[in-house]
Amino acid sequence: MTRGVMTTMGEALSNVERHSRAKTVSIAVTAGRSGLRLTVSDDGKGFPAPVTGRGIARMRAAFAEIGGSLSVNTVPGEGTTVTGVAPMRR
After folding, report:
1. Bridge-partner residues for 79, per DSSP?
2. DSSP characters for the chain?
3. What is the largest CA-CA distance in the chain?
4. Which residues of 28-52 are buried (b: 16+ CB within 10 A; e: fewer)?
5. What is the pLDDT of residues 19-63, one digit of tens each?
6. What is the pTM of this model?
7. Separation CA 44–CA 50 (nearest Å)
8. What CATH code is carried by the domain that includes residue 40?
9. What residue stretches are annotated with the Histidine kinase/HSP90-like ATPase domain (predicted)?
């Protein structure tokens, strides 16, 4: 796992702290056929689509650099989930 990917997930946590007003944050790391899945979810204020911005673009670029992907699902008033999938080395 690259430093960029770990920094990205740190940025997701930082965004929860700075912007979400969440009461609960969940962090999950799972391994599967698609690779290593890292998820940060919160029950905060969410934000309206489209999901854009420099921070999101940097996060997506970090995962794309290693052949992975990043998705952001958010619903205003219900929270946000950031999921990154990174291929596992064999």
Report:
1. 75
2. --HHHHHHHHHHHHHIIIII--S-EEEEEEEETTEEEEEEEE-S---PSS--SHHHHHHHHHHHHTT-EEEEEEETTTEEEEEEEEPPP-
3. 41
4. eeeeeeebbebbbbbbbbbbeeeee
5. 899 999 999 999 988 889 999 999 999 988 777 778 888 889 999
6. 0.88
7. 17
8. 3.30.565.10
9. 5-88
Contact between 28 and 38 under an 8 Å Cβ cutoff? The reply is yes
Measured in whole angstroms, how far is the alpha carbon of residue 67 from the centre of its chain? 16
Give the whole-angstrom CA distance, residue 69 versus residue 60.
7
Q: Which domain holds residue 80?
A: 3-86
pLDDT (tens digit per residue) in 59-87: 899 999 999 999 999 999 999 999 999 99
Contact between 55 and 66 (Cβ < 8 Å): no
